Amino acid sequence: MDKIYFNGMSFYGYHGVFGAEAELGQRFFVDLTLSLDLSKAGASDDLNDTVNYAEIFSCVQKIVEDERYNLVEKLTAQIAERLLVQFPFSEAKVKVTKPNPPINGHYESVAIEMTRRREDIGS
Questions:
Q1: b/e per residue, 25-59, with b = 16+ CB within 10 A?
Q2: Residues 83-102: pLDDT tens digits?
Q3: Which residues are catalytic?
Q4: Is residue 5 a contact partner of residue 32, using CB atoms and an 8 Å limit?
Q5: Which residues on neighbouring strands pair with residue 9, listed in sequence order?
Q6: What is the pLDDT at residue 43?
Q7: Fewer CB in a 10 Å sphere around the end CB: N or C, the chain?
Q8: Are 62 and 12 in contact (CB under 8 A)?
Q9: Into how many domains does the chain fold?
Q10: Which residue ranges in the chain fall short of pLDDT 50?
Q11: Contact by Cβ (8 Å): 13, 65
Q12: What is the pLDDT of residue 61?
């Protein structure tokens, strides 16, 4: 299966269980690995035979920036499900990184990664 990768997309969102996270927000990073058959696009060189990358970016941006979830797990699951519903992917691997969660200690970030297949969402 062919893959489309999005690496290091950056958005500002208001996700977290604490009030300050909902009020102040913070940056979130999203990486995607999206599986689908790209053989027709590879042969035709026609945008109509693939997916529009700008539409993928916009879909993820709307979820991260316009919606609010307590858990990064829920945010990650929503991105994967929405991508599988809106686009012809057979599989979506989504990684959401939260660089500054309210954890007392020294670390670079925390992240959730989920892989979902089209059959996982019932479509």
A1: bbebbbbbbbbbeeeebeeeeeeeebbeeeebeeb
A2: 999 999 999 999 999 987 77
A3: 98
A4: yes
A5: 30
A6: 97
A7: C
A8: no
A9: 1
A10: 123
A11: yes
A12: 98
Q: Secondary structure of the chain in the HEC alphabet?
A: CEEEEEEEEEEEECCCCCHHHHHHCEEEEEEEEEEECCHHHHHHCCHHHCCCHHHHHHHHHHHHHHCCCCCHHHHHHHHHHHHHHHCCCCEEEEEEEECCCCCCCCCCCEEEEEEEEHHHHCC
- CATH number for the domain that contains residue 85: 3.30.1130.10
- Boundaries of domain holding 12: 2-121
Give the model's pLDDT for residue 122: 65
Q: What is the pLDDT of residue 21?
A: 85
Name the residue among 27, 28, 33 with its Cα closest to residue 7.
Answer: 33
